[in-house]
Amino acid sequence: MDSAMKEMDTVLETNQRTMFEKDTREQIAFSMPCTENYDGPVLAVSEQRLRSNARSFIAAMPRVRPHFAVKANPDAEILRIFKEEGCCFEIASSAELQSMVDLGVNLETVFYSNPIKSPASIRQAAAAGIQWFVVDTPEEVLKIATIKPDAKLYLRTEVSNEGSVWPLAGKFGASSSGILATIEAARNTGMQITGVTFHVGSQCTNINNWVEGIRSAKNIFAQLEDNGWTPELLNLGGGYPVQFTGIEPGITEIGTTINKELEAIPSSIQVMAEPGRFLVGSAGCLVTQVVGMATRDDKRWLYLDTGTYGGLMELAGGFPSNIVSQRAGEPSLWTMAGPTCDSIDVFGEHSLPSNMEVEDLVFITNLGAYCTSCACDFNGFPIPNIVLVD
Ligand SMILES: Cc1ncc(COP(=O)(O)O)c(C=O)c1O
After folding, report:
1. From ligand 1's centre to the CA of 203, what distance in Å?
2. CA of 155 to the centre of ligand 1 (A)
3. 145 and 165, same domain (yes or no)
4. What share of the chain in percent tops pLDDT 70?
5. pLDDT value, residue 300
6. Could you tell me the distance, in angstroms and rounded to a whole number, from the CA of residue 172 to the centre of ligand 1?
7. Is there an atom of ligand 1 within 6 Å of 202 CB?
8. For the whole prediction, is pTM greater than 0.90?
9. Do residues 226 and 293 share a domain?
10. What is the pLDDT of residues 288-316, one digit of tens each?
11. Both 149 and 269 in a single domain?
């Protein structure tokens, strides 16, 4: 039995590895047009990938309406493609609100999911026609009550972020006492809380976090009913992972578990999610260039024209990555850094051919999300240009 299981494990591992390598090759293939006449870093974004990611999310969870988290990549063309694929949207700021106005979406379908909103941005959102606002503290309820007393409120609750690569717990999400206090604030202001949301952490590989979130939402719905309110929304947040190593759970596997949990949620409750990374991550591959090499004591350094400031903030934070060169050669460990004068502009050790040369191009896959949207042009180095490819 044991040996059969071991054999199965090996087959599975091989298949997953093959799947992962195939995906890397595909991302490099769709980026190739961006290598011609290279003139600075480019984030190649595949239109087909954007569309197929949206379709596989919808197919995996037919009851769950995807609201693309605009923060992951607010590029106007990307938003247009997701709109065409039937996605709705989730925003966190006035600038993201403006991108929705420019896109011409029905603003009643846009959710304002930043738990801390400035009064000015609440005023702008309310004037534009946004209906749904998240809350996770009594203070936020009071703030919204003075500006838009008829807002529809959904409560962000804390949930385990264990197993997510980029946890979001702690800063946001009401604890059980916070839930009681937030509900009381709503009651005192005459507002109603009719929805529940949570975020399992970004790049979450632990499906149980969603299970826990849905089960606890069910209990909170009962608390809302005790206040005479009728629950109408369950928002499953973001966190759906992309395949960095080939062993992350796929969207179908996550969907199967979530769909089963949703059987316990009455059909009168609309269910939505806020995928960011899953929808756009694997559609983006960064094409960047080696600008310098150095040997410092026993370490070999490779400097790229894109770094922590230019879009690789997550790599610098220890996020998994896949960095590939077109050059063939014996693999060697390089300490990699960006072009700026800052010492935080270093993003770990990575394997690349030992015979790398200045001006070689380097591909970094799965960077469609939180690359350009987190980048700045510190020191005057340009942020990657987004180029839509097939
Ligand atoms: C409120 C909210 N919703 C959705 C997302 C998107 O998460 P992800 O890109 O992990 O799917 C985030 C990410 O920070 C978020 O803060």
Report:
1. 10
2. 15
3. yes
4. 95
5. 97
6. 12
7. yes
8. yes
9. no
10. 999 999 999 999 999 999 999 999 999 98
11. yes
